[in-house]
Amino acid sequence: ATPTALMVGTGRGAQLGILIKGPEVLESTRRVDTVVLDKTGTVTTGRMTLQEVYAAEDSDEKEVLRLAGALEHASEHPIARAVAEGAQERLGDLPTPEHFENVPGVGVRGSVEGHEVTVGRFPGALPEPLAGAKAGAETEGRTAVVVVRDGVALGVVTVADAVKETSAEAVRDLRALGLRPVLLTGDNRAVAEAVARAVGIDGADVIAEVLPEDKVDVVRRLQGEGRTVAMVGDGVNDAAALATADLGLAMGTGTDAAIEASDLTLVRGDLRVAADAIRLSRRTLATIK
Ligand code: ADP
Ligand code: MG
């Protein structure tokens, strides 16, 4: 009767909007005690929009947005889409970069009108009023990226991404199942903590500023502490972590790379279904025993 019960579990999963790679997947969900949640696109919608533009004292907002929009135009990153579309809307035509390069988890770099331009994380201390503007936006949960021209910080551009309506309830559901939710992101700590607060995750369970290639190490470290880890993600950046986790759950709204690396796919991209999946597998396995 074991295979039959597992097949029934798989069929019930499909009804709930959960695609299961194979019946054996249900087995590995049983011992899961920790659920690592990617932030962007998993807990949040991942659809970012341009918010504020700040300029350094000797520059102006238009120039900051023009250079940022020109460079981000060539990138697929959600931040890049928001900046490029916002810049086009506000300014119209933008210059075409002579050179462009993606730096995963950091930003974009290239040359525009003969100037070296970067948009993304900034390693050093920013001058005022940029430092204050950036800190203020981040405390409120907006992501702030720095625009640099020829090695000098020219301005700050902020983008916002909404927390999905269902995420707070999903976190409550996961806790009710005895699981510990952890928020994992490449984004800034202040932004990550604002999102965590909004969905009810403790600041101590926020792992921020993690480079794409290091997400998998976070999963391994938790496993090394004796935890059985489920990971929920959507991005190319999450694929290795999804494959390494004891249970990988992909958002159906996410990238093919994430879906292929996972054991389960949450078809509608609703995080509450992650809790349904774990509940279903526990019930299915209880039937078998
Ligand atoms: P997440 O883990 O939240 O999906 P990423 O690892 O893709 O985020 O990016 C981490 C950080 O790197 C972003 O918060 C941003 O500061 C910077 N970044 C990455 N790509 C870009 C880009 N195209 N433009 C500007 N900043 C970027
Ligand atoms: Mg993501």
UniProtKB/TrEMBL annotation:
Domain of life: Bacteria
Annotated localization: Cell membrane
Coiled-coil region(s): none
Family under the similarity heading: Belongs to the cation transport ATPase (P-type) (TC 3.A.3) family. Type IB subfamily.
Protein name: Heavy metal translocating P-type ATPase
Source organism: Streptomyces cynarae
